């Protein structure tokens, strides 16, 4: 019996984005699988990869998450078919970020030992100035203080910082910033599991400058464990059963162990400190220390082998050993400090990474000529010192990727310049050629006239304005001396209020309430319209504008969105209730799978609402009925179906909090001029959605399909991208 492929996306928590590197990780595993030593991506899981019929990537050139939600109703097929979605970090040059800068890197003689590369793999001194390590640190040897992250660098890389939003309640190590070049180094690494709260520490290791283990402790998470991530963490339920140590115990021990000028070393150390809920001023991050272009990072396992000649994170072991990882990170930092940037750059790590990847796969050196595309033909010239091309990894396996797109779309040099076709012609070619290819990249575009920066700005203003209107309700009329406290209390039971103001332009007072979540505003309209509040029978409604005329249709479609299937919203919670309290209270609800308690991203405090995800839609409906009139700790709960998909939280919050004033006069000046263009744009988007629908229907079952809105990252501004993915035939079985 044929095994059915399945995709499970354990997407990261509120406000997280998937990077280009993580996307590369997914596509590489989907295309190559374990037989070619590709690892499962860290953020999602493909079951029975070897049974995938193929991989199809659809790139919607120059489009962002903004376009998807501005034209949500027009993207009828996309929102109904793809249940797995994620926000995508934008890139200045998306094709290069995804495919690589070069193609057809001719396999060179693989070094005998990656720790001692042959002279063929050592970079010439004339090329060193282009190396990211030299560009960042110069070519002179320096002390360790030159490699610690500045406050700005820590902030940029999501390190917990004293007084920053979201770090309330974090514990400081109380070490000062008076570090010197002789300050002691300590290697730190943690293993985490996924709980109802997010990532929580399950094991902590600390080693000193001599590599001696000072701490190697199991930690019991505070919240219910959703996924032990045993494959990576090595942690099992059985291991944690007898453990009494809590996070607070570890925090206390670390504070006592670290001297005042301690410098912590780790690989992506920000994740460890966030999970530890600790703030430390002096850090060296080896994932940033060994710099790469385009913001990409080397993995710790590769660096340990290439630089130190050590094998870590072996597949024979169950999960990672945090002590081994902490020691490896420490030794990498010591190597860098002792040898200096020039010696590290001379290792030519990019070349070694390419050689390692090519050594892992078939030694087939046949030249690939993808259908409809042409690669650079100078095979006798040495390979460029650039990011390894994803398509090269496919080439050596004998797979024939298909790359279709319009002229000028692909800046990586992968497509022939004579490709100049419409979306309709690209679709026709795709329908003919995709079945013949195991890996296909199809690029569609709305056309150059729709990617001007002022159009992006106009779209952003319109989406911001419409979202604000959807989060806003007006209530009234009230008596002249009505009690504002009573109004705030009653409307607060529907969800978190961002602002509440009195409207005095009317004959009798009204109030304008802006909520923090869409569900709260809708709940207020549904439950309080016609109710008696503060002694008055009031009407509750949203603003009446041209843009809001289709609001009810949009609300209905959001409710039916596949991402909201089996998810309900519950409001009226007392803020004193903890996640554990809620787990206990809701445990009697049948088939409850996950409880999500959102935080205010500014204050870090829990909001007075939560989301409950059930194993199936029927259980969610039963829960809604059961929760009707339910009181918890003296507070009456209100609930309804969810409206906003999870990955939208940060985007909604940022849009809701942006003042929208910068360049506002320009937006309004041009909006009238753009009205015809936008009407035409809606038609084009609808047609584009239809093209993707036809392409998707033509795919074989068990085909992984990924649709990418790459986002925009230019001098005119930045817009996050969006990814949608699914396996054909898995629509009814996927589970996020």
Automatic annotation (TrEMBL):
It comes from the Eukaryota. Residues 566-644 form the RRM domain. InterPro entries: Nucleotide-bd_a/b_plait_sf, RBD_domain_sf, REX1-like_exo, REXO1/3/4-like, Ribonucl_H, RNaseH-like_sf, RNaseH_sf, RRM_dom. Transmembrane segments: none annotated. GO terms for molecular function: exonuclease activity; RNA binding. SMART domains: EXOIII, RRM. The keyword Nuclease applies. Pfam families: RNase_T (PF00929), RRM_1 (PF00076). Coiled coil: none annotated. The keyword Repeat does not apply. One of its GO terms (cellular component) is nucleus. Keywords: Exonuclease, Hydrolase, Nuclease, RNA-binding. PANTHER family: RNA EXONUCLEASE 5, RNA EXONUCLEASE REXO1 / RECO3 FAMILY MEMBER-RELATED. This is REXO5 exonuclease. It comes from Dryoscopus gambensis.
